[in-house]
Amino acid sequence: MRNHWVVRTDPPLGLPDRHVLVASLEEMMDSGGEPVVFVMSVDGFDAMLDGREETTGALTRELGARLSRLVRSNDLLAVLDPGVFALAGVGIDQQDAAGMLERMRGVFAVPVELEGEFLSLSVTVGVSRSGRRTRGAALLEAAESDLASKLGRQG
Q: Under CATH, what is the fold of the domain 20-150?
């Protein structure tokens, strides 16, 4: 089942992209699963890196590598934009989700060294749980909407 998930990736990062994520969510639901999607955005990512493309890619790769340690065998980690990741999986109840959120925040709490500079990071996370009539794209959009509402409250 997981073999074709990594067919389409963001080449510099080697992680699945939005299209693979949506197709994988559809597959999870078609198999009877009820996926949960977490969309994580590094707070102030663009401003912190000030358009330095090489540093942006390096930081995104480092964070992707850290997040990949949280991924269970049936989960999918994807990159949506620089500094924005999505993690999707099935079999995640409320208690599991709370634990996953803490582990995700822990990944970002450890400073990252880039070009001799230590960057302190924080993350905002949007979450969406599948419903009876929800499809993959709508589930991802709901998590992104939850993220946007949280970011709006911070600003």
A: Alpha-Beta Plaits (3.30.70)
The H or E element that residue 39 is part of is strand 36-42
Question: Comparing 75-84, 115-124, 139-148, which segment has the lowest mean pLDDT?
Answer: 115-124
CA atoms within 13 A on the CB side of 66: 18
Q: What is the Cα–Cα distance from 17 to 9, expressed in whole angstroms? A: 5
pTM of the model: 0.86
Q: Measured between alpha carbons, how far is 151 from 155 in angstroms, rounded to an integer? A: 6
Tokens encoding 107: 């990944």
Computed on alpha carbons and rounded to an integer, the radius of gyration of the chain in Å comes to 15
pLDDT digits (tens, 9 = 90+) for 2-28: 433 334 445 556 789 999 999 999 999
